[in-house]
Design a protein that fits this description.
Distance between the termini: 33 Å
CATH architecture: Sandwich
Helix content: 25-40%
Mean pLDDT: 86
Low-confidence stretches: 13-19
Order of helices and strands: HEHEHEEHHHHEEEEEEEEH
Number of helices: 8
CATH topology: Jelly Rolls
Strand order of the largest sheet: 1-2-10-7-12-5
CATH superfamily: Cupin
Largest sheet: 6 strands, mixed
Number of strands: 12
CATH class: Mainly Beta
Number of domains: 1
Amino acid sequence: MIEIIIFLALLFLVFVFFYKQSSSDFNILQIEASNLSTLSELLEESSPIVIRGLGPPTLLTPETLRTNSRIQTFPVSEGISLSKWLDSPPSQILATQPQEMREQLAEEVGVSMWANHTWFSALTESSWFSFLQTLESQVFLGSMGMQKTTALQTLIYPTSGTFTCSLTLGTATKFLPENWEGRFLADLRPSDSPLLHEIEFLDIILRPGTVLIVPPHWIVSMKSNNDTHPIFAYIELQNPISKLATVIG
């Protein structure tokens, strides 16, 4: 019995050690979809990865959502159903939906199943503990303010509209105002924090057909450029340690 406890404790420490590993280099990697076989090697570098050339999305577009009669009454905001939002002018901006609603929508439209079928093996190919890892999916209808990634890998997949994705290292929190979560770096002013100029960040334009994979301990936001109904999938690869970090916040 003691041996089992010691083994589990050591396993826990191994998980914590590898989870805490992060890159201090501000480096963005890029590959084409035709070279996905090299993804597992790039993931070990603990840097964000842009994957281009995936082709037009086959799910989670306004067109595919309209054809799913079962979800037309799904509430996407107070007093607004999915069908009403899809029929509204592209300029209508929704408030960020609660996480529970985003997760439920991902289940309803098949994103969760698609993510497991398409991305799980690619993200866990080099892991010895893939049996302890799971994918958790959300669907965002609109923008997402800054938040720190806590999952082993976070996959962001825009399916409608163009987004400006801002990335910075998690260590930048010491230069941000206390209430930085949910806000956009571009909207902050020196009056919010006098050390904003110390933050190194990069803006990436993400369009349908492109995927961004972000390791843990980075700060990321997705701001819609308001050219159409903005939609993206937010998929997290979790294990018990990263899940605990997500819950604790």
